[in-house]
Write a structure and sequence with these properties.
Layout lengths: L7 H12 L2 H13 L3 H29 L3 H9 L4 H34 L7 H9 L3 H18 L2 H28 L4 H9 L9 H15 L5 H6 L8 H30 L4 H8 L2 H14 L5 H33 L4 H21 L1 H29 L1 H9 L9 H29 L11 H17 L1 H8 L2
């Protein structure tokens, strides 16, 4: 068991750093605006309590109880024959690490550009195309991994905790300053009204509910295995329910602040043209963040300052999430007997090598993003199976509530046994259906091909099942 632990505040900051990522800042403002504003927020909050929060509680409780990484925790909690499930969860988050480091590099590049090359960003399409068509993404990917690797090498209290204690409060301060500026722009309050005014008729649209579930699942980090990994470095008396609630509400607060910064600013820059606003928001995460935002921020007073704040917040969010993604596989290697510094060196090197295709090809990047983002939904379901196999009531009473001043009840049991499996089934098949609409199902190399997704998942699961015993013995060290 590691003696290097988080302080209670340090864990909260690190967990918020894990949860608050680019999805809060570039995806949430887009999907909330496209899906009924306040109505979407209602649906989104429902899934905070029926998907994200229960999984966060489960993850934290497993990590805090077993004090080991994902593979060892699944092995001890479910039995040796289920180690492969933990392997899949770990692989999904590690596969995301490969291309998320590339995204962190993008954020670093645009932060640099907003400070030193603001004029060039007035032609954002040319800037983005020139950047992605060059070898610069590879360079900035390497910089992101080097910075992240250095933090991880210094350990939990000396590295991850210290950095998050600086960056997370700074991120919230930056967002608050940005919001104050956005809502004081002419028409900014109209943008705020557009954002929060609920169109209750949208609640009849199943797409709104499915987008809300997806956003909650992807944004909070529930089911990724990252909270479990960080929780291995917490004290046995840490309150799992109160801590998990802080993570969930803190993450959602960051999402709302990001939307309050972006939407009123766009509303002002577009002079309240809602049709044009929807066109901008429909340009996707990359189009909104790296093309539309720089273009429109040129049209507002103090545009460069606001743009610097935006990309500074985006980089902080990306980097703190990158740290958690790096720590997860690092902890697995530590469990297998390697030192921390050897582990992070190996993980950073592998991440750079496997991230190269995504850094050099947007088509590959989109494929990997779609494949493994969906894989997170399956990972969340595996955590539910963990609890069901362990015994839901037994898990609640003996693990969750043991060190918590808050008591759950049978509602939690119902959510875990019935509601989350139902949500998983509906959302996974909905995304499979969307995949069929986006790309030919049998196109192995397609960006959104269903065959590509299932092939990658299937190959990995088969390999892990075949080598399950060997993996189990290795992590036993």
């Amino acid at each position: 068991m590691s003696k290097d632990k988080f302080s209670r505040l340090g864990f909260i900051m690190a967990a918020l750093g894990m949860a608050i990522g680019t999805g809060n800042i570039w995806r949430f403002p887009r999907v909330v605006s496209q899906n009924g504003g306040g109505a979407f927020i209602i649906a989104w909050l429902v899934f905070l309590f029926t998907w994200s929060m229960p999984l966060i509680i489960i993850e934290f409780s497993i990590g805090n109880r077993f004090q080991k990484g994902i593979l060892s925790s699944f092995k001890e909690g479910m039995g040796t024959e289920y180690t492969w499930m933990g392997s899949f969860v770990a692989l999904v988050s590690t596969a995301i690490l490969f291309y998320y480091a590339v995204v962190t590099g993008w954020c670093l590049k645009y932060l640099y550009g907003s400070i030193f090359n603001f004029k060039a960003l007035s032609k954002p399409e040319h800037y983005w195309t020139g950047f992605t068509a060059s070898y610069q993404p590879v360079f900035f990917d390497a910089i992101a991994l080097i910075l992240g690797g250095l933090v991880i090498a210094y350990g939990i209290s000396g590295g991850i905790e210290k950095v998050n204690k600086i960056l997370i409060p700074s991120l919230f301060i930056i967002l608050l300053i940005g919001v104050a500026r956005a809502i004081t722009l002419p028409g900014g309050l109209k943008g705020l009204n557009f954002l929060f005014n609920p169109d209750f008729s949208k609640l009849k649209d199943y797409n709104v509910w499915l987008q809300a579930l997806t956003q909650s699942a992807w944004s909070t980090g529930a089911g990724w295995g990252l909270i479990l990994t960080y929780a291995t470095y917490t004290g046995k008396k840490d309150d799992s329910i109160a801590t998990s609630a802080t993570i969930g509400f803190g993450n959602d607060s960051a999402s709302l602040l990001a939307a309050m910064l972006v939407v009123p600013t766009l509303f002002y820059a577009l002079r309240g043209n809602e049709k044009k606003l929807f066109e901008v928001l429909s340009s996707g995460n990359q189009g909104l963040t790296f093309i539309s935002v720089p273009s429109l921020f040129h049209k507002i007073p103090m545009g460069q300052t606001v743009l610097i704040l935006f990309f500074l917040a985006l980089f902080f969010a990306a980097f703190t999430s990158l740290l958690s993604l790096l720590e997860l596989p690092t902890r697995i290697l530590i469990d297998s007997g390697l030192s921390r510094r050897k582990s992070i060196f190996f993980i950073a090197l592998i991440s750079f090598a496997f991230g190269l295709p995504s850094a050099m090809s947007m088509k590959i990047f989109n494929n990997q993003d779609f494949t493994w983002s969906l894989g997170l939904i399956l990972s969340g379901f595996f955590f539910t199976l963990f609890v069901i196999k362990f015994g839901v009531k037994k898990f609640r009473k003996e693990i969750i509530e043991k060190n918590s001043s808050i008591k759950l009840n049978i509602v939690f049991d119902i959510i875990v046994k019935y509601i989350i499996p139902l949500e998983f089934t509906i959302v996974i098949f909905w995304w499979f259906y969307k995949s069929l609409k986006l790309d030919k199902w049998n196109n192995l190399l397609g960006e959104y091909s269903l065959f590509s997704i299932l092939s990658q998942w299937g190959i990995i699961i088969i390999i892990f099942i075949i080598f399950n015993k060997i993996i189990s013995k290795k992590v036993a060290k």
